[in-house]
Amino acid sequence: MGRAEIARASGLSTQAVSKIIATLEADGLLMQDGTRSAGRGLPAALYAVNPDGGYALGFEVRPDAILGAILDLRGTQIATARERVIAAGPQETATIITAMRDALAAKAGIDATRILGAGVALPGPFGRTGLSEEASALPGWEGVDPVALIGDALDLPVTVENDANAAAMAERIGGAAEGHATYGYLYFGAGLGLGLLSGGHLVTGAFGNAGEIGHLPLAGDGVLLERAVSRLSLVARLEAAGVDAPDIDTLGALARADHPIVRQWIADAAGPLARAVHVVETLFDPETVILGGAMPEEILRDLVQAAELPASSISNRTDRTVPRLICGRTGRLVAAGGAAALVLNRLFTPRFAPVAPTLQ
Questions:
Q1: Is pLDDT larger for residue 222 or for residue 10?
Q2: Which of the two residues, 182 and 346, has the higher pLDDT score?
Q3: Position 301 confidence tier, pLDDT thresholds 50, 70, 90
Q4: pLDDT tens profile 215-262
Q5: Domain limits, the chain
Q6: Is-same-fold flag (55-169+337-348; 180-330)?
Q7: Could you give the CA distance from residue 132 to residue 137 in angstroms, rounded to a whole number?
Q8: b/e map of 71-85 (b: 16 or more CB within 10 Å)?
Q9: pLDDT band at 345 (very low <50, low <70, confident <90, very high)
Q10: How much is the pTM?
């Protein structure tokens, strides 16, 4: 955009816009990106975000692994890292994340002083709750302030978020949710979570635990949804039959081979998944619900196809432009990339305090 367009869009004067652009150019955050002729006079200079003006770090902490990513200012993923752990305790996690930051900066060949902040995605629930002993939770983190712990270790501003929320944000930057502002994201992480975005902002709840949908009894006979629809439930069923599935690549190979246990699990999980989508639609009225995360693409696609969504839903509209349930496009590092996207979201979609009315 040119100065005049920015001035019209922002309500600022052209002179104010020119001063701000000069400052942002000097800081390396904006760059000139071509010109546009508007008839008489000199062509107007056009400005764009400088993708190398700053970078955002993102980390996902799982019980058995820590994943990292770094994004430029356009949301492009320029480096990733992954490290397996025995148990992701607080101090061990802070040490690994610090080393991972240095490795990512070196791998990307960037100036580490241009890193603007870090996002960290943790599996919920946060705080001491009645769900803290679930297999998908992080042991040893109760009572720990992750913002202070990791912020001190990195010496950066840190945003901590539920992993499903981070994944939901990642899909908005170059993923299946690009162009959408209000949607749900069902996330396969350690368990099954739900990220919700309304008008481009995350819905987090009073204690950061909104979207713990995996703990709802939606699977029939009072069984929690997560026990029927999660990577843990699929791996448990395979292991019960003597089939070892230690990682996502193995699950993908079994799916491509049309393994009967994987096929039956998909058939059994489709019903509970459809009921979960219906709940999200009824409570939240999203543009769409996205299914993604740490699960092979083949299984995600088959789940979406197998889930028969009820016709009696407020989301069953004749004017829909996108299906009610779709696959995500950001892959298994979605939560790490999403954690970094939280930093960009804070920069580009700020929340402003309301201005008190002035009495005349």
A1: 10
A2: 182
A3: very high
A4: 899 877 788 999 999 999 999 999 999 999 988 899 999 999 999 999
A5: 3-49, 55-169+337-348, 180-330
A6: yes
A7: 6
A8: bbbebebbbbbeeee
A9: confident
A10: 0.79
DSSP 8-state code for residue 284: H
Within the chain, where are the H helices?
3-10, 14-26, 90-108, 146-154, 163-172, 225-228, 231-240, 248-256, 260-284, 297-306, 334-348
Mean of pLDDT values over 284-288: 96
Q: Which two tokens stand for residue 11?
A: 């309500």
Query: Which architecture characterizes domain 180-330 according to CATH?
Result: 2-Layer Sandwich (3.30)
Q: How far is CA 144 from the centre of its chain?
A: 23
- Residue 295's alpha-carbon distances to 44, 124, 198, 327, 345, in angstroms, are 48, 18, 25, 11, 25
Are the beta carbons of 70 and 104 closer than 8 angstroms? yes
Phi, psi dihedral angles at 151 (to 5 degrees): -60, -40
Task: Output the average pLDDT for the chain.
Answer: 89
Return the SS3 of 50. coil
User: Where does residue 280 rank: exposed (0-12), middle (13-18), buried (19+ CB within 10 A)?
Assistant: buried
**CA distances (Å), 196 to each of 19, 162, 181, 267, in order?**
37, 11, 10, 26
Superfamily grouping for domain 55-169+337-348: ATPase, nucleotide binding domain (3.30.420.40)
- Cα separation, 225 vs 248, in Å, equals 21
Are 340 and 70 within 8 A, CB to CB?
yes
